[in-house]
Structure formats: structure tokens, C-alpha cells
Amino acid sequence: xxxxxxxxxxxxxxxxxxxxxxxxxxxxxxxxxxxxxxxxxxxxxxxxxxxxxxxxxxxxxxxxxxxxxxxxxxxxxxxxxxxxxxxxxxxxxxxxxxxxxxxxxxxxxxxxxxxxxxxxxxxxxxxxxxxxxxxxxxxxxxxxxxxxxxxxxxxxxxxxxxxxxxxxxxxxxxxxxxxxxxxxxxxxxxxxxxxxxxxxxxxxxxxxxxxxxxxxxxxxxxxxxxxxxxxxxxxxxxxxxxxxxxxxxxxxxxxxxxxxxxxxxxxxxxxxxxxxxxxxxxxxxxxxxxxxxxxxxxxxxxxxxxxxxxxxxxxxxxxxxxxxxxxxxxxxxxxxxxxxxxxxxxxxxxxxxxxxxxxxxxxxxxxxxxxxxxxxxxxxxxxxxxxxxxxxxxxxxxxxxxxxxxxxxxxxxxxxxxxxxxxxxxxxxxxxxxxxxxxxxxxxxxxxxxx
Length: 451
Ligand SMILES: NC(=O)c1ccc[n+]([C@@H]2O[C@H](COP(=O)([O-])OP(=O)(O)OC[C@H]3O[C@@H](n4cnc5c(N)ncnc54)[C@H](O)[C@@H]3O)[C@@H](O)[C@H]2O)c1
Prior knowledge:
Blueprint: H1 3-19, E1 25-28, H2 34-43, E2 48-51, H3 55-63, H4 73-81, E3 85-88, E4 99-102, H5 117-126, E5 135-138, H6 146-159, E6 168-171, E7 190-194, H7 197-208, E8 214-217, H8 220-250, H9 255-262, H10 287-296, H11 302-328, E9 337-341, H12 356-366, E10 370-374, H13 400-404, E11 408-411, H14 420-426, E12 430-432, E13 448-450
Parallel strand pairs: 1-2, 1-4, 2-3, 4-5, 5-6, 7-8, 9-10, 9-11, 11-12, 12-13
Antiparallel strand pairs: 6-7
Helix pairs in contact: 1-7, 3-4, 5-6, 8-11, 11-12
The chain binds nicotinamide-adenine-dinucleotide.
Nicotinamide-adenine-dinucleotide binds next to α5.
């Protein structure tokens, strides 16, 4: 008997459960990706069971209190009150879920190589609870081959079952853009690659209940490659406009004006905005997952690495511009008081992972400056592996006397809820990496330095 005939009955039953909303979606990892995903399924009346090793997140979900600022309190309270949603750190409850979606971190290790320890640990924790008919989907960003070469062997070995006939496996990259008011999880088409036709059918049916569009691709490797391609595209294009910024600044040309005008071309140009460097858990990291994997095939990724170099160098350019700005006020960095405005890597979120602001704070501190930060989204720096030495530092208050006490205010992130007009009144010297001060009323000659 061939595999498809043997499993048709099971598959139909599972598809029926999805259709009738009696199919429980397990989500492992309830961070910037997993929590909105939980909300997205919940909104479509799909039962959801969230898992995380971080007890504090479970307590927040149970009590309805926010832990990711931009997602707000209302959503958390609805999740807490819901009788089809629950969250736990008890992996013994995994069999209650019909599908297990993995949304755990995929950072780089100290040698800038993929750190798959979170994924591997999670898969090993799931394996003993795997049962027939389970659907396991990896959503974390990763190199092509992860699902087939890493995940399936662990699951098969530990469970004694086969991904070809007993359980289903798929890869579907998360494209969540935290803080994006136009596109939330439900509105972003979802690419899905299945390990076999049945897995693809099941995973597609599941996402179809909650996501605007499902985009099936040939297999899990292709789906893994899609996600990396998207993020490499961003990294390379950001590097390009960052390079243009430096070149045009030397020529006395405003790169932002150039880009805005170029963007009026209705075809063949896509707008990217320069900044102080890359941040976040995705763009500075994901391209190197491909670089690492490409080495195994004796392939070079020169473009990707060059983009990485250009972007990594941006904080040093910002430092140079800040030195020029201070110099114009007859001041040296050494002994200056420098305020970094914005610790989050992008506006209106509280995510400070890989933020270039940390690089800037380190550079200025190393040059003898007295450094502080202001960020309404990050009142205190949480402990982390990346910048342990800043843990516990608190944001300065937004008060005239405080802001006036700094020799320069460097805008690293253009949060919406900052009073930039007050900043014009209070700050003697402003270095603006986001072009937020452009054409603002009241700016004095030499007060604002674009960087
Ligand atoms: N943040 C984004 O904007 C974004 C966008 C698209 C894709 N991604 C990708 O999604 C994945 C998750 O990113 P994120 O930003 O949500 O990370 P995150 O750090 O915000 O969340 C991950 C969660 O997983 C939990 N976790 C870690 N190990 C675990 C384990 N063994 N068992 C259970 N839970 C565990 C952590 O406690 C944390 O709550 C990454 O691969 C990332 O590249 C992120």
C-alpha cells in the first residue's frame, strides 16, 4: 500500500478538525513572533496553546499584562480572558496540541555563525511528546536544509516514528514586522514548504484559517531560502543607501532628498532609507546563515558580506559626524556629555536587540565621553548576552534641564512619541541619523548635523 492511501483517512480527519476549529495550535516561543501568531489564530476562533521556557511571559499572558510594548494591553487582556487560549511552560502538555509551531530564536554565536541551540533544544523537548498525526512547523529564520537535516532526524530518532508516514513536518518563515501599522501577522502572505504533499496540504489548510494568503512552494528548503532572500535583499539595499549617504554627504548633496525624488519613479526603484547601522534580530543576522551554509557548497557570498561590512561600518561614520558636530562647537568627545535618543533599533517598538545605539554608546564611552540614553519604549536596559555591561542602565527623563545638560543629542531612532520641537528649543547640538529634524521650524544654523 502506498503512503498516500495509508494516510488519507488521517489527513481528512485532521483537515476536518481545522475546518471545524477543533484543531489546537501549539506555539513554542512566545516572543515578538510567537505572541502575535497566537493572537492571529485566536482571533479566528482557533484554540491556541502557547509554550515558553520564560515563566514571566506565561505569567503575563495569564494575567493579561503586556510584555511587548507595541502589542498593547487590550490584546493581552483578551487573551487572558479567552477560554480557547492558554499558555504554559509545561511541555508535558504538548500532546494537547495538534500542530506545534516553533518560533524560537536563531541568533549568531560568538564567531558570527548560526546558533541553532534554541531550535535544537526545543525540538529535543518536543520529540518525546510527538504522536501520530502531529504537525510540526518551524517558523524561525534559518539556513536551507534545517528542517530536513536537523529537525526531522531528531524527531524521528527520538520518537521512533517516520516523518514520511506518521507525522507531518513543514517550514513556514515568519514575516512579522513588529510595529508596522499596515501589516500585522494576519495580513502578511505566508510562504509554506512541506516535507511531502500531505504536510504541505495540512500546513496550508491551517494557515488559510488565519492568514490572508498562503503561498505554497516546492519543499522546506525552498521556503527556508525564500526568507533568507527577503532579508538579504533588505540588507544589501540598506547597505547601498548607507554607502550613498556617505558619498553624497561628502559632495554636499542630501541623500534623503535624492532618495525621495528617485522614489517618484513608478517602476524599477524601491525606496530604502539610510540609518545609523543595522539592528534587530533579523537583518544583521540572517544573511550570515546563508553565507555559512554556502561554504559547505564551496560558494562565496561576496555581495552579502560586502553589504554586512558597509552596514557594520555605519556607526563609525556616525561617530565621525558627531566629532565634527562637537568640533564646530569647540568641544572634544573626551569629556563631553552625549545623549543617545532611541535605544530600540527601529521606531515605536521596544526591541533593542543588535541596536546600533549600543555600538555608539560603546564607541563614545571608549573615547572618554559621558554617555546616556533616552527611550520612551525602553525605560531600563534588560540583561542580555550581547550588551551585559549596559544592563540596568535607565533612560534619562525627558525634562528640559536634563536635555540641556548634554553637549550633543544624537538621534539614533525616530520614535513617534518624542517632542522633537522641544528638542530644537533645548538641545544646543543635534546629530540626526534619521532625517527627522529636516525642515523643522526653529532650527538654528549649525544646530543640526545630518549623519
Ligand atoms: N522579531 C522579528 O521581527 C522577526 C521577524 C521575522 C522572523 N523572526 C524570526 O523568528 C524567530 C523568533 O524571533 P523572535 O523575535 O520572536 O524571538 P524572541 O526572543 O522575541 O522570542 C523567542 C521566544 O522563545 C523562547 N524560547 C527560547 N528557547 C525556548 C525553548 N527551548 N522552548 C520554548 N521557548 C523557548 C524565549 O523565551 C522567547 O520568549 C527567529 O528565528 C527570528 O529570526 C523574527
